[in-house]
Each structure stands twice: as C-alpha cells, then as structure tokens.
Design brief:
- The protein is of the alpha/beta class and 302 residues long.
- The chain folds into three domains: 5-85, Winged helix-like DNA-binding domain superfamily/Winged helix DNA-binding domain (Arc Repressor Mutant, subunit A, Orthogonal Bundle), CATH 1.10.10.10; 93-162 and 273-301, 3-Layer(aba) Sandwich (D-Maltodextrin-Binding Protein, domain 2), CATH 3.40.190; 163-272, D-Maltodextrin-Binding Protein, domain 2, CATH 3.40.190.
- The protein contains ten helices and 15 strands.
- Strands 7, 8, 11, 12, 13 and 14 form a six-stranded mixed beta sheet that branches. The chain has a five-stranded mixed beta sheet with strand order 4-3-5-15-6.
- A hairpin with a 2-residue loop joins strand 9 (205-209) and strand 10.
- Helix 1 packs across helix 2, helix 1 packs across helix 3 (31-45) and helix 1 packs across helix 4 (61-85).
- The termini are far apart.
C-alpha cells in the first residue's frame, strides 16, 4: 500500500491543532488541501481517522493509534532528511519555537531580525504560549522557559538577558491619592492589578531585600492573563486604577517617561534570565543548530 508522506503530515497537523483551520495556520497549507489529504489517506486505509463536527476535530480510536506511532516516525524521517542539510552551504528548513509571551515581546525582538538576516533560507515559527508544554508533542523543535520550569533531560542554553527583575509601579496620581507603600505588606491595602496563568493559578507577588523574602497575595479591580492581556493591565495602571507588578523591561518606557512611578524599588526581586531548551536524546536539526550558533555568538559579542 502506497501512502503519501505529505498526507501523513497533514493528518498530524490537523490532529495536533484540533481543527483544519488551526492546522492550516500552523502548517502553512490551506485548510482545503489538508481536508483533501486526510480524506485521501482515509480512503487508502479504508478507515475513518478523524471525527469531524462543525466545532471540533478529534481522532477516532484508529486515528489515535496511528498518530501515537506516527509522531516519532515522522520525527525520525525529518532527522534523516536533515542530515543532508549539513552538506548545504547554508542551512534551510523550518524552526518552530514554543516561548512565553513575555519572551516573544521582550527577548526575541533583539535576536530574531539578525538571525533571519543571517539565515534567509530558514523559516522561523514562534508559538507564544505561557503553558508549559512538551515541545516534541507540540510539534516544536525547542522552547524557551525560565530555569524553574525546565525538565531534567533537557539541554538548556542561555538566551537573552542573564538577570531580570520584576518591577512594581503605579501612576503618580494613584500614589498621591492612596499613599506610597513602604513595605510589601502595605500592598494588601492597595488596589493591585493581578495576573492569572492559563492553569487558573495566580502567582504571588514576591519581594526580597537584605535576606528577607516576602510573598503576598494582593487583591484589586483587574485580573488578566499574563500574556496577551498584559497591555490592558498596563493601561489600567497608567490610568491610575492600581499598582502593577511586571517584568521591568515591560514597564521601562513608562518608568522612563514618568507616567509610572517605581514602588518599593529596593525590594524588587531579581531572577535568572531565560533558557532555550531542547531534548538531548535526538539529533539537533540544522535550523536549530544555526539558531544555537547565532545566540551563542550574540552572547559572546554582547
């Protein structure tokens, strides 16, 4: 039985994205082409692989069994083909990275333009996601996370700034009206703009000074996801609605302009910068190798 490899890849793309439109966005192939490829594959195999409704797509039992074996097999095919890439003058192919929204906004803008200029035959796909995912299961070659979120069997390479801080700030008008906190515990009497992770958890605000660490759970009028809705929280802080606690780089322009005033700056917590991580048990694809070389060169020159 002859099966087209591209039809198998289409099935994986649709199943992983849980939809034809979503699969089209992630694969760069039209939804109609993906649908035709899956239909062709089902006809060849003589069994339905996906259950389709107007709202969702999910593998059948047969489809789930096939996908379970197919993912590792296709990765091996890609790795085998990538060996040839090593003989090219310049590496080519697609590099998929799973990163937090904060890294996409604050770290990658200083890296990606130079990388793509140096490697014009590489296509870079960035999936911004604050949930910790299995990079291989999600179809990505590597991810970027902070040290406490890394798994033991991953290779981790520093990327971006090696030290970062969380800054706490508010509009001067808010502080004039409500007072300026002198200790982190004072924040419990203030309106604070909070963030909630996709898991539903709300991270406490942490502060440290002179060996003392303080963790608090303040409350306030606005809770946002720490990724896409952060700009809304910043706008609320600029509008005098409360105190915000966020990456210092995110607030830096507003602190510099005076639109926001630092709060409890001696207590701002420092932490290690992010890492690019990838599985150590497989061959490194040429596009990822090129990205690793680029960030290592950038780190040395910086």
């Amino acid at each position: 039985m002859q099966i087209d490899l591209e039809d198998l890849k289409a099935l994986v793309a649709v199943a992983r994205a849980k939809g034809f439109r979503e699969g089209a966005r992630s694969s760069g192939i039209s939804a109609s082409s993906l649908s035709e490829a899956v239909r062709r594959l089902e006809t060849r195999l003589g069994v339905r692989l996906l259950n389709r409704t107007t709202r969702s797509v999910a593998p059948t039992e047969a489809g789930a069994r096939l996908l379970e074996r197919l993912g590792p097999a296709l990765r091996e095919v890609d790795a085998a083909l990538d060996v040839v890439n090593g003989f090219r003058e310049r590496p080519a192919g697609t590099l998929r990275l799973n990163v937090p929204v904060s890294v996409a906004r604050l770290v990658l803008p200083g890296i990606v333009p130079g990388f793509l200029a140096a490697y014009p035959e590489i296509r870079l796909e960035i999936i911004a996601d604050d949930a910790f995912v299995d990079v291989l299961a999600s179809g990505c070659d590597a991810g970027i996370r902070y040290g406490e979120r890394l798994e033991q069997d991953m290779i981790a390479v520093p990327i971006g700034p090696r030290q970062q801080r969380f800054a706490t700030a508010a509009a001067p008008a808010y502080l004039d009206a409500r007072g300026r906190p002198r200790h982190p515990q004072d924040l419990l009497d203030h309106a604070c703009l909070r963030g909630r992770f996709s898991s539903g958890a709300m991270a406490p605000w942490e502060f440290e000074q002179g060996g003392e660490t303080v963790r608090i759970e303040p409350s306030g009028p606005l809770v946002v996801s720490p990724g896409g809705a952060v700009d809304l929280a910043i706008a609320a802080a600029l509008g005098g609605l409360g105190i915000i606690h966020l990456f210092e780089e995110w607030l830096a322009p507003h602190l510099a302009s005076g639109a926001l005033e630092p709060v409890l700056e001696p207590w701002w917590e420092s932490f290690s910068g992010p890492f690019l991580y990838y599985p150590g048990r497989r061959l490194v694809p040429a596009p990822l190798r090129a990205f690793l070389d680029h960030i290592k060169t950038a780190t040395r020159s910086g």
